[in-house]
Amino acid sequence: VVVWTDPADPPSAAELAGSKKAALGSNNKGDGVAGGRVVVERHTINGLNQRFLPLSSPRTDGILSIDDDLMPTCDVLRYAFHVWQEHPLQMVGWYPRQSQHGNPGYNHVLTKGSFFHRKYLAAYGAPAVAPAREMVQEFLNCEDLLMSYVVSNLTLGLPALWVDAGMPYEMAGKLFGGHAIHADGSFLANRKTCRAKFTEMFEPGTLTTSSMIRYGHTEWDKYYTPGPNHGPGKSKSVVSTFTSWARLGEYIDERLGNLRDYVFLKR
Predict the structure, then answer these.
(1) For the segment 197-253, what is each residue's pLDDT rounded down to a tens digit?
(2) Hey, which bits of the chain come out as E strands?
(3) Of 28, 134, 158, 204, which residue has the fewest beta carbons closer than 10 angstroms?
(4) How far is 144 from 150, CA to CA, in rounded Å?
(5) From CA 135, how far away is CA 197, in angstroms rounded?
(6) Looking at the annotation, which residues are catalytic?
(7) Beta pairing partners, 162
(8) How many C-beta atoms surround the C-beta of residue 82 within 10 A?
(9) Whole-model pTM?
């Protein structure tokens, strides 16, 4: 799914020539049109919140969120997906960051290259999160940070997983040209404002720790080394001490099932 939020410059068929089957969606709600390998969601609003609208397709539980200037190799992609399959309630990504200024280490990953469960798209769009989404629209910034706050809040602070073994290639320019948002002089200042406001808005303890679990080259080597104890589903859970994964999953679903009444933010 390509999320296209530039109404002044809609995609053309020529730009999708690399796919033999493509579908151009014109639904302003971002529903897109199913039926092809590539589905382009065209939006009438130029913003970043549209990136995390609930998707009608694909219907997979796992969502890969990736910027248009990243090109992961198949091996890099497979390994990150393997990590997410073992820990589907957590965000898994290549780019770690720290949301609290001055704190050591990292506590979240950027959604410019990450896997997460599709259920978190609904959480991002919850009515209670509207004030934070308004900031994202105002600054054209911080949607990745907000998603991390939402997931941290919803999962009671489960740490993100940083895949530090193989990185996607970053192209020198954007895929379709144009001005990079991070090149704006106010980009970093706006992110600092977002961090402060989100920390103030959300319930205490949301994304305030410095916890981050790192999957480095050791795990990478194990994953790609033949043997009975290696490969998908064989590695030991790094958070096996958690009381009950099944119960946590039920708890998250309970909260997601009542998003209109659920309060993410401080009362």
Answers:
(1) 998 888 877 886 656 677 765 554 444 333 333 333 333 333 333 356 677 777 778
(2) 2-4, 22-24, 38-42, 62-66, 70-71, 92-93, 96-97, 108-109, 113-117, 161-163, 169-170, 213-215
(3) 204
(4) 10
(5) 9
(6) 144
(7) 93, 214
(8) 20
(9) 0.77
